[in-house]
Amino acid sequence: MPDIYLHHHTVRGDEIDGQGHVNNVSYVHWMQDAALAHSAAQGWPSRRYQECGLGWVARSHYIEYLEPAFESDQILIRTWIKTLQRVSSVRKYEILRVADERPLARAETNWAFVRLSDLRLHRIPAEVADAFTIVPDDASGA
């Protein structure tokens, strides 16, 4: 399985704001969609986390917007795991427009691993950690 997951998206009309380009909140949705799809591809779909009573919650997001995206643009979200620690992980993203390969945004999310019943931090089980490869910044190509 690839260390860097590729997630495709076509910009919808409901993602456009009053300025005629993609609303900044849509980027967070794309990031979450890509993270969920990557996890599922690695054998950890949402259902499996639910069955274990464990899962991820976002602690923080950082997004650097580089260029606007517009309705019908084909978007590629590249995502990978930068760090995986005892109870947290940093996931990186690069969002590109497919037509011209222009970077639209760079982002990262700091995720915390929690027990779903009370949202208390929980050590990341080995079977979860082993499903993902750590990709350092200098190896990501971003």
From TrEMBL:
Keyword Transcription: no
Alphabetical keyword list: Hydrolase
Gene3D superfamilies: Hotdog Thioesterase
GO MF annotations in UniProt: fatty acyl-CoA hydrolase activity
Alphabetical list of Pfam families matching this protein: 4HBT_2
Source taxon at top rank: Bacteria
The keyword Hydrolase is assigned to this record: yes
Family in the record: Belongs to the 4-hydroxybenzoyl-CoA thioesterase family.
Name of the protein described by the UniProt record: Acyl-ACP thioesterase
Organism: Maioricimonas rarisocia
Lineage: Bacteria, Pseudomonadati, Planctomycetota, Planctomycetia, Planctomycetales
